[in-house]
Structure to design on (576 residues):
């Protein structure tokens, strides 16, 4: 965590770039079709060459894999699917030898229902660990186990109710996600101390920080009020009762005192927080409060979403710019932004926000330029540095994600949704789109595996792969390298103030970063047409130098007049 007065340490971590490894899909070392830790070890030179500072490793703990490892049955062991603790120790050592760091996924809102804690909790009403989870009686007067008998009418994020009836003890347990992911009861101090002890165990082992999964859901409204049901359903979203609950800040401050306060060096902490507001994020990331370094907010990735994830709305560029700019302004001088367009829970960014057809390369570069040059910490999701795109899944059997499969099954059971239209939506917004294997080369299996991959490789791997891009000057990969090097070299990228230009322009995304000794101007065309505009800037920009361009072979128009080709972006720098 940050300490007041530690300016040099702050400057260092704010320059870091984080790379997310989703290990199941990163690199397979043993031919079983599933990525593993030794696969990650085999690609460290690639990551070092890219220039990233931190590797965020999605869960590799022991797990029944109901939700691909986000259902943990043992927090202090590695699932054999991924390797061993010795493999992880070697990964930590090899990263540190390269001057890089490892951030582990911390999933403590819930465990697996196969975790020994829950097995004990479920065994009887008087078990000492019964209160480690949320157990409640059926609704008075209702028949236990029938729809509507649940203690609340909250809807699970993975479809259906958030409560499952346990016949053995005659009570329901709470699970905001899968039935196999029961929620821990953070109101119980024994739960919190067990979590803190586990975190210290990992830090003692050499881990450098934590990405905290849905950490804004650990505190619930203990009165468990009902919510407004969806039309035609007995259930509805109950997030207002468990998102940033009444003790959320208290728990994170306690975590800081118990886990981080006495640690030398900087432990990087980022909280995934669906539905968090700017005001709440300021509190979570204010260094004086000792909670988190930054949060993952979801506002910009909800702009194209209607009543549910697969109800897809048009995304207008002014709305996306406005959302990003609001977070820049809101956290400036108070907290810190995390910057992302994609991760393991989102579709591929070039397919969602860019153009994955004719202008795939240009739009992948431009998306990266715009994202990385906002103020905050950029997150590169594996394959984005190659411009990887959504895969064409032809049938529901091609999908593996529990959320998509359950949503499709429930829609089919109701019979009120066109299956073909839903399949189109799943292809556009499904989480599996980001989970297809990383495309290392054009060999069978894309260099990911010598066996049969757990999920199909995108057939475009013959053209889109790392072997074709590393060292190719005009590639997406090399553009990422230049972006990351710019962040490391120029303080204005991390420290400069942010000013959005032409907020309502439907195609141009332009902004200025103003630092103490220099200024950067970013202008990007988010369309397949050529566009021209006059930016509201002083004439001194006409002498600015181009420091980065998506199309470096083109002669630029000097600002304040700009003329940009399809998905073209440019960055200028001037002193002062």
């Amino acid at each position: 965590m940050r300490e007041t007065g530690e300016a040099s340490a702050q400057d260092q971590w704010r320059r870091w770039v984080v790379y997310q490894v989703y290990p199941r899909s990163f690199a397979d070392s043993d031919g079983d079709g599933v990525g593993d830790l030794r696969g990650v070890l085999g690609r460290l030179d690639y990551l070092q060459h890219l220039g990233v500072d931190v590797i965020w490793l999605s869960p590799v703990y022991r797990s029944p894999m109901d939700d691909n490892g986000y259902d943990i049955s043992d927090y202090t062991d590695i699932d054999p699917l991924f390797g061993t603790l010795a493999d992880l120790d070697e990964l930590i050592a090899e990263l540190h030898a390269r001057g890089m760091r490892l951030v582990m996924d911390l999933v403590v809102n819930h465990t697996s229902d196969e975790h020994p804690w829950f097995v004990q909790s479920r065994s009887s009403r008087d078990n000492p660990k019964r209160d480690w989870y949320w157990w409640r009686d059926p609704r008075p007067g209702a028949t236990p186990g029938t729809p509507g008998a649940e203690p609340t009418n909250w809807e699970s994020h993975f479809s259906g109710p958030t409560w499952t009836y346990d016949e053995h003890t005659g009570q329901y347990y709470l699970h905001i996600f899968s039935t196999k992911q029961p929620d821990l009861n953070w109101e119980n101090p024994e739960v919190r101390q067990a979590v803190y002890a586990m975190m210290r165990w990992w830090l003692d082992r050499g881990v450098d920080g934590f990405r905290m999964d849905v950490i804004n859901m650990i505190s619930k409204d203990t009165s468990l009020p009902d919510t407004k049901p969806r039309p035609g359903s007995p259930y509805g979203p109950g997030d207002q009762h468990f998102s940033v609950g009444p003790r959320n800040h208290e728990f994170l401050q306690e975590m800081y005192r118990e886990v981080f306060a006495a640690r030398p060096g900087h432990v990087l902490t980022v909280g995934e927080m669906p539905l968090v507001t700017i005001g709440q994020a300021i509190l979570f990331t204010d260094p004086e409060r000792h909670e988190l370094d930054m949060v993952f907010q979801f506002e910009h990735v909800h702009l194209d979403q209607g009543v549910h994830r697969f109800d897809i709305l048009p995304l207008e560029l002014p709305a996306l710019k406005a959302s990003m700019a609001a977070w820049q302004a809101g956290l400036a001088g108070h907290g810190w932004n995390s910057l992302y367009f994609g991760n393991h829970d989102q579709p591929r960014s070039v397919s969602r926000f860019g153009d994955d057809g004719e202008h795939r390369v240009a739009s992948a570069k431009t998306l990266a330029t715009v994202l990385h040059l906002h103020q905050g910490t950029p997150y590169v999701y594996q394959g984005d540095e190659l411009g990887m795109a959504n895969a064409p899944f032809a049938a529901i059997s091609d999908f593996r994600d529990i959320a998509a499969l359950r949503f499709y099954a429930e829609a089919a059971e109701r019979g009120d949704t066109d299956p073909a239209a839903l399949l189109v939506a799943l292809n556009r917004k499904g989480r599996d789109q980001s989970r297809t294997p990383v495309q290392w080369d054009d060999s069978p299996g894309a260099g990911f595996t010598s066996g049969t991959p757990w999920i199909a490789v995108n057939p475009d791997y013959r053209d889109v792969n790392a072997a074709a891009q590393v060292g190719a000057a005009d590639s997406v990969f090399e553009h990422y390298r230049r972006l990351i090097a710019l962040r490391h070299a120029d303080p204005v990228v991390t420290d400069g103030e942010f000013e959005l230009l032409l907020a309502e322009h439907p195609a141009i995304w332009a902004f200025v970063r103003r630092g103490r000794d220099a200024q950067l101007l970013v202008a990007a065309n988010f369309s397949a047409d050529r566009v021209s505009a006059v930016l509201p800037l002083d004439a001194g920009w006409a002498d600015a130098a181009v420091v980065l361009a998506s199309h470096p072979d083109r002669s630029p128009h000097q600002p304040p007049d700009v003329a940009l080709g399809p998905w073209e972006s440019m960055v200028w720098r001037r002193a002062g």
Q: What stands out?
A: Residues 1-9 have pLDDT under 50 and may be disordered. The chain is about 25% helix and 15% strand.
